[in-house]
Amino acid sequence: MTSPSGERSLVLIKPDAVRRGLVGEIIGRFERKGLAVDAMVLRSMDAALADQHYADHVEKAFYPPLKDFMTSGPLVALVLSGDEVIEVVRGMLGATDGRKAAAGTIRGDLSLSNRENLVHASDSPESAKRELQLWFPELV
Ligand code: CMP
Q1: In whole angstroms, what separates CA 66 from the centre of its chain?
Q2: Ligand 1, pocket-test mutation among 106, 117, 119, most atoms within 8 A of CB
């Protein structure tokens, strides 16, 4: 998955971030890093999309509350592009658990939760391809 400026990543600014008014703060960090916003939409995730998006996690014990959380309100879906964007964005997010994420990262600075950790981002070129197809089929 490439664009004129390089690789692409699928990013979800989760319902906790929308409720807390952190959308601008989070997108601002990506913009200041030099990444490009290629597409963006405010929408909700329904149960079927949650099961598809988190296909690798549906059997895990943490999945039912994760699904409830991710379908609890609107989220912002983004396509970001830039040099090595997948790895760069994962570094900017920090560790999954906001209580353990390093200061300076989005989760380290703004989250105290393992579940309500503000942002999802593709973790590999393979997951980026799959997730972009799911969320922005018109771009693929
Ligand atoms: P995300 O990057 O969206 O990928 C899977 C999500 O599951 C993760 O962020 C967290 O929101 C959630 N998650 C992962 N591990 C746990 C866990 N142990 N307990 C609760 N939620 C988790």
Answers
A1: 14
A2: 117
CA of 13 to the centre of ligand 1 (A): 14
Contact (Cβ atoms closer than 8 angstroms) between residue 79 and residue 39 = yes
Which regions of the chain are under pLDDT 50?
1-3, 5
> In angstroms, what CA-CA distances link 24 with 17, 21, 27, 76?
10, 7, 5, 11
Q: Is the pTM of this model over 0.90?
A: yes
Pocket of ligand 1 contains residue 114 by CB under 6 Å: yes
Set out the domains of the chain in order of their start, with CATH numbers.
Answer: 2-131 (3.30.70.141)
Alpha helices in 21-140 (DSSP H): 23-33, 47-53, 63-70, 85-93, 106-110, 125-135
Q: What is the dihedral of CA 17, 73, 68, 44, to 10 degrees?
A: -110
Other CB atoms within 10 A of residue 95 CB = 15
